[in-house]
Design brief:
Helix content: 40-55%
Strand content: 5-15%
Number of helices: 28
Structural class: alpha/beta
Largest sheet: 7 strands, parallel
Amino acid sequence: MPSIQESLTTAEQLYAAHRFEDAARLVRAVLPLVPDHAVARHLLGTALCAAGRVEQGLGHITAALLLDPGQPAYAVNRAVLLQACGQRAMAERAHRRALRLRPGDGRLLDGLGTCLGELGHSDEALGLLRYRAALTPEVGDVYRKIAILQQRTGRLAEARQAYRRAWRLGGGDGLLLREALSLPVIPRSLAEIQESRARCAAVLEEARGLGLRIADPLREVGVTSFFLSYHGLDDRGLNVELARLYRQACPSLLYTAPHCREPDASARRQEMAGRRLRIGFVSDHFHAHTIGMLNQGLVERLSRDRFEVVLFFTPGPEDDLRRHLKAVADQAIDVPATLEEARRIIADARLDILYYTDIGMSPFTYFLAFARLAPLQCLSWGHPDTTGIPTLDLFLSCDAMEPEDGEAQYSERLVRLPGPTVHYRRPVLPEPRKTRSAFGLPSEGTLYLCPQSLFKLHPDYDPVLVDILRRDPGGTLAFVDPREQGQALLERLAPKGPDVAGRIRLLPGLGAMDFLALTADADVMLDPFHYSGGKTTLEALAFGTPVVTWPGAFMRGRHTLGFYRLMDLYDCVARDPDDYVYRAVRLGTDPQLRALVRARILQRSGVLFENTDTVRALEAALCAPVPPQPAGADA
């Protein structure tokens, strides 16, 4: 019979041979004989972690550290695993402890810096990472981490410099694209927006001439052009150029499913109109998220006589909505968050139509969309901006929201649909409802509510917000700030309206019912310039809350206008910024007018909710033969 030491040596050999389960099994057999053996505990923990059972493994590594507190390897592994498990506060403490045992350890400095950044302690994190860079200035990955933190804190010039240095040190060509996409989250000014877009265009042009090579864009880039959409400008040119660059740099993105390569594949679009079609929906947000909520009714109501509905679920929270979507789909298929495997799984489904509910919010679905996985591929307005990706055939939009020249703003073929294009249930609130005072807001005076994500608030909007408060001395303006971005917004607003700053409130993130209650109790909701509310506007109108809007030049700034057009109601639609202020203040300060407008909204808003006609129109569009793209279409 082998000795304990011989058994542990064998287990180490099994671990080295990547036979992690066998190694764990052997150590488990030994452990009852020596329960206080720190080396055995640590070996079992690392084997379990390598086998994918991280939480079990972490427990044994923690036990090893308790048995031998001075062993640096145990402390290092525990810190790294806690960080991998997302236990940031515990990981921070573990990294600090490990650094006391192993000062100057680069891996630990990196890890602690990352933990601190994720916990919001950006300045301390940057200090640590700069110290790490001074110790090993040749390590490009440190500069990548510095760049991410600089970008997160709005120091865009420093972020771009760090990305460029990381690239020059051999960090990979994806870093140039991260540099290009270093865009402001809360822009300080219109000038910053213009400068960041010009810089993006210049770096993309430079990158195209360098013949970049990117093997795994998810890992090497891992971001999209998401923040371009909030600038109030035409994004087609930049998004087309970005997509063209990815097609050149990463040929693996251009995968074509076998059934789309068959000799008759080009004719399949024409014959699809005569049979039941297999349609697949894909998103990273099929759970209690705006995208999941807006698409729930469509998944439920799409005709099963005409369509077989397949939902593809990426890793995400297993909440009630996700379970419901899995139950109502004809087929629910889990896909991993790796492009190669996801492409294979979706290709194996032999879809007729692949429907992206949103593209641009998630790097995974953005890069997935470069593949041809179905004869017809389309997207809707979950993220209402063109993609520039030539394998997306149709952009399914709400006609009432589109400007007259909308077609020119898309690389995809624009399909204008009647109705709201979503089948959304009118929300309800339990009684008694919470009122504004429950959220720490004044019970007297006008409550102007702007509950949109703060990155939607363009600098052009600032003077209007300040003017509303100046014209209504009893008014309070409330924002909702779940991402803790509000300080940057307040700093931007302060010099424009120091006299009204005391009447601007930032509320923390709210639960779904609290958000609805606040929306219902607001006197006036303010719709941002250039990027309108979608689901939030629907929820406000469901309770009769007036939403004042000034329509923008692009569909993404016209959602609220579209809903009002469908309702044939224009009391809250402004002609220009001055008219916006006038309508908002008049509604806020005239209770009789506000009551009248609320009644009209409640009377006419039925067309926006559980609209079956809009589902039938979408079905017809999906079944219609798709003509070829016109000459000169983006490629």
